[in-house]
């Protein structure tokens, strides 16, 4: 879809510009750039831009929020790949950050990307009212912290090798994967400065659905994909005995779950009419992608 391609390119440009800074630690800057500018799908910043535009906002008002969210996503991947966590050697077809550099540098690069996110949103040059920036900062912190992504990751670690109920699995992924996708919608809406409560609730339903759909698709790809296309080791979740939707529901059941979530996301956008076609295309992409 053309819009997604445009927003991906915009994200790359904006991220690269924000990493052009002097430092007494050039190796740290190199590791940050390596982790951040590695050809990711950029689904989260694209979602910020799509919601901002759907609600009549300005792209320039969405840029810092989109970049901040991708900084946090990238930091989480760097830390997830560490030996103390998933111990992965490959990410997006390239050596993971701690393999390319070293563990200490990867940890510090992740820390720096996390803190950079809040620097970007709180920047005095960001031309939004202070109250809006404060709301955005708070929502992003909640989504990234012990009520969101970090809680989901901790739950995942604690339950490796254990059979979960469907509700437990969904709760884990609402936090681990869904939190950052959901907050992308919040940031897009806040950056627009104009959203009705009923619109925001519909968009939240959409966000919850695509957040789970993203994880269900990842779980399916771990079985059906191949290492070269995925850019990471195929079967790594199975090898680690992680709780997944195919493990709980079977592969056919996971596909059915993915279809249901896709339909829920599309149903949530009905009131927006054709203006939400780009968000529909994003939902389609999430369930149809091959990596």
Give short descriptive properties of this protein.
291 residues, mainly alpha, Farnesyl Diphosphate Synthase
How are the secondary structure elements laid out?
Layout: H1 2-18, H2 26-36, H3 43-54, H4 59-80, E1 90-91, E2 94-95, H5 97-100, H6 103-122, H7 130-144, H8 149-158, H9 166-176, H10 178-192, H11 197-224, H12 227-230, H13 236-239, H14 245-268, H15 277-288
Antiparallel strand pairs: 1-2
Give an account of the 3D structure.
There is one protein chain. With 291 residues, the chain is mostly helical. It is 72% helix and 1% strand. It has a two-stranded antiparallel ribbon. The radius of gyration is 18 Å and the shape is globular.
Could you state the CATH homologous superfamily?
Answer: Farnesyl Diphosphate Synthase
Using the coordinates above, name the CATH class.
Mainly Alpha
Count of individual domains: 1
Strand order of the largest sheet: 1-2
- Gyration radius, rounded: 18 Å
CATH architecture verdict: Orthogonal Bundle
Measured as a percent range, the helix fraction is over 70%
What would you call the structural class? mainly alpha
- What overall form do the CA principal axes indicate? globular
Number of helices: 15
SSE series: HHHHEEHHHHHHHHHHH
The main pleated sheet reads as: 2 strands, antiparallel
What is the number of E strands? 2
The fraction of residues assigned to DSSP E strands is under 5%
Looking at the structure, the CATH topology is Farnesyl Diphosphate Synthase
Overall pLDDT score: 91
N/C terminus separation:
16 Å
Low-confidence stretches: none
């Amino acid at each position: 879809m053309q819009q997604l391609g445009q927003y991906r390119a915009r994200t790359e440009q904006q991220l690269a510009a924000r990493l052009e800074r002097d430092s007494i630690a050039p190796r740290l800057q190199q590791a940050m750039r390596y982790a951040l500018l590695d050809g990711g799908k950029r689904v989260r910043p694209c979602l910020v831009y799509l919601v901002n535009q759907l609600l009549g906002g300005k792209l320039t008002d969405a840029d810092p929020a989109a970049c901040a969210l991708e900084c946090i996503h990238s930091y989480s991947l760097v830390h997830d790949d560490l030996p103390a966590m998933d111990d992965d050697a490959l990410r997006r077809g390239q050596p993971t950050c701690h393999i390319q550099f070293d563990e200490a540098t990867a940890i510090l690069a992740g820390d720096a990307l996390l803190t950079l996110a809040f620097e970007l949103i709180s920047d005095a040059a960001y031309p939004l009212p202070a109250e809006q920036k404060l709301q955005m900062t708070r929502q992003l912190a909640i989504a990234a912290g012990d009520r969101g992504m970090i809680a989901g990751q901790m739950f995942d670690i604690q339950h490796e090798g254990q059979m979960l109920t469907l509700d437990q699995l969904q709760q884990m992924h609402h936090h681990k994967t869904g939190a950052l996708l959901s907050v992308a919608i919040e940031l897009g809406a806040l950056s627009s400065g104009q959203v009705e409560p009923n619109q925001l609730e519909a968009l939240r339903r959409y966000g919850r659905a695509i957040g789970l759909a993203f994880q269900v698709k990842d779980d399916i790809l771990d079985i059906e994909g191949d290492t070269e296309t995925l850019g990471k080791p195929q079967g790594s979740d199975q090898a680690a005995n992680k709780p997944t939707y195919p493990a709980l529901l079977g592969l056919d059941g996971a596909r059915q779950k993915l279809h249901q979530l896709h339909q829920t996301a599309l149903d949530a956008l009905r009131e927006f009419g054709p203006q939400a076609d780009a968000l529909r295309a994003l939902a389609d992409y999430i369930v149809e992608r091959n990596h």
